[in-house]
Amino acid sequence: MDSDPTPTHWHDRIARAFGYPRLSCQIEIKEDMEIEIPPKWIWGKRRKRKI
Description:
Layout: H1 10-17
């Protein structure tokens, strides 16, 4: 890949603040590739479901 697309989404700011890769990056895939998804961090608390 020649270069990353310019970040334009607020998610990019939040990802950088927490040490994550860009979240809103959109790239064109031209051949097979393998990716690794990092473990998910939950920012804040989960909301309790009302029954």
